[in-house]
Amino acid sequence: MTMTISVTTEQWTKRHELHLFRQAEQRPSSAGWTECQGTGLVHLVCNCGYSSGWIASDDMPSVEQLMADHGKAFRSIVAGF
Ligand SMILES: [Zn+2]
């Protein structure tokens, strides 16, 4: 039996895996449960190296811009409100 191993010289490229994190905060309530709210900040991170840092959601790049730069979101983690 002969096995053939294919060897390529193609360059490795980083794929886009855009994630969106919405910052949330919490505190215990006097009723014994936990209150949660969004801070209004978001952080966009992509496997390609892009990171927005914590920015106001109003300052977030448009969906059209994000799609042009990173393609469709690979996975999104959305927490908060
Ligand atoms: Zn990307």
Notes on the structure:
- By secondary structure, this protein is mainly β.
- The chain has a domain of 52 residues.
- 10% of the residues lie in helices and 30% in strands.
- The chain is built from 1 helix and 3 strands; from the N terminus they run βββα.
- A 3-stranded antiparallel sheet has the order 1-2-3, with no helix packed on it.
- The protein is elongated, with a radius of gyration of 20 Å.
- The mean pLDDT is 86.
Main attributes of the structure:
single chain, about 80 residues, mainly beta, three-stranded antiparallel sheet, about 30% strand, binds zinc ion
Average the pLDDT over all residues and give the rounded result.
86
Number of strands: 3
pLDDT < 50 runs, ≥5 residues:
none
Q: Indicate the radius of gyration in whole angstroms.
A: 20 Å
SS field, number of helical segments:
1
| Main sheet properties | 3 strands, antiparallel
Can you write the helix and strand succession as a string? EEEH
Bound molecules: zinc ion
**How far is the N terminus from the C terminus?**
59 Å
Q: Determine the structural class based on helices, strands and strand pairing.
A: mainly beta
Strand content: 25-35%
Shape: elongated
* Helical amount: under 10%
Strand order of the largest sheet: 1-2-3
